[in-house]
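Researcher: I'm preparing a figure for a lab meeting and need a structural model of a single chain. I don't have an experimental structure, so a prediction will have to do for now. The sequence is pasted below. Please return the structure as tokens so I can convert it later.
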Amino acid sequence: MVNEFLTYLSTEKRYSKHTTVSYRTDLTALSYYLLTTYELANPEQANYPMLRSWIVSLSDQDMLPKSINRKIACLRSYYHFLQKKEIISKDPTLKIKALKVKKSLPVFVEEDNMINLLDRVEFEDSFEGIRNKVVLELLYGTGIRLSELIGLQNNDINFFQKTIKVLGKGNKERIIPIHDKFIELAKQYNQKKKSESFSNNTDFFIVTNNGEQVYPMFIYRLVRHYLDQVTTVDKRSPHVLRHTFATHLLNKGADLNAIKDLLGHTSLAATQVYTHNSIDKLKSIFEQAHPKS
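Model: Understood. Here is the structure written out token by token.
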């Protein structure tokens, strides 16, 4: 039933390949635990105490609560699927509660540092140099996810309407506006890409020096290389630029619902985490400007 469940996730629920692989890994680990601890060969027969015991064992191994909660989400999804298919009559995960997770504020790059990076750091007038700047401008200028950047295709850039079309989580499309400077940069990039005369004519917008679709580690290394030049924040990843995009918009007075739509969040709760950074800035302004502070 595990294979059928994973097929259901990828085809009907449209979960990403990464999530599907993670769920397979979790269920394999659960099966091994049930077999070695309870001599139970079939996870479908597991009850609440057995599942709770597995979760406790993960905690005893000093696994982070956030990671354990992801495994709990996998269990809930799997046993709900089994109940839906009438394989089991009672869901053994109903009493399982998620662990409390200490919320951390999103890491972001200060506005002056981003201006230094995009307006003052020199990028070579070559395919590689222009491509690298396009990547940074896209991540910071639109807030798209790493997977969305990698999947972006040439025809997703609408130069006339000044928008890009992004395929997000759950295969949900959203339209994000782009500014005039990026349009000019993107046109310049396309010209450089054509002049390279790559042997493979890929439809993907961002490509490697060999003209192939970029991959996560490629973008990680690129982003870190440039952020190293302008900031000392602990995290210097593509996702930090997504956080930076949202934080800067909010600090400039953008509506939270609009930011939610731009980021592709399904609920406002996921976007509200950025308000904490904005409140910190308001407090700083208050302390500097208010006569009674």
